[in-house]
């Protein structure tokens, strides 16, 4: 139950911050530049790291697989929620946004808005996986202790 609370809460908060960041870019007319979405990785990273730290602070014994699950699910929830927001935005609010992004990418064929929505989802999941793997290396228990020596070959 603790794990569910942590990853659902942080997943929703990551998505809220991603949406707010996008809307701030929209406010200044900068949402047309895909290079600014690289800051999404920092937002994902901060949120996943905080979720993992929160989970480890509540548990006396930290298991790698449980921490990995918290990281993946918090980022996965954020990816899905942000993708849903972007799909609604691109299909209902600003239909020209997807066309403008595709023009910036200099694609000579029309791949449609669905391709952009799938790209957002895949980028969110891949960012989540990479960042969770990286953070778990920082947070896992070291085998370089007296207790860890019994775990070697």
TrEMBL record:
The chain crosses the membrane at residues 12-29, 35-52, 72-91, 111-136. InterPro entries: DUF4199. The keyword Transmembrane applies. It comes from the Bacteria. Keywords: Membrane, Transmembrane, Transmembrane helix. This is DUF4199 domain-containing protein. Pfam families: DUF4199.
């Amino acid at each position: 139950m603790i794990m569910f609370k942590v990853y659902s809460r942080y997943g929703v908060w990551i998505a809220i911050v991603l949406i707010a960041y996008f809307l701030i870019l929209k406010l200044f007319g900068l949402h047309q530049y895909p290079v600014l979405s690289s800051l999404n990785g920092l937002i994902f990273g901060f949120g996943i790291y905080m979720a993992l730290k929160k989970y480890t602070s509540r548990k006396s014994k930290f298991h790698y697989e449980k921490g990995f699950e918290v990281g993946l699910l918090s980022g996965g929830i954020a990816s899905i929620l942000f993708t849903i927001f972007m799909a609604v935005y691109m299909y209902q609010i600003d239909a020209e946004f997807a066309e403008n992004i595709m023009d910036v990418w200099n694609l000579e064929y029309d791949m449609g808005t669905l391709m952009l929505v799938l790209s957002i989802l895949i980028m969110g999941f891949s960012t989540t996986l990479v960042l969770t793997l990286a953070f778990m290396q920082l947070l896992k228990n070291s085998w370089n202790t007296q207790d860890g020596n019994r775990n070697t070959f």
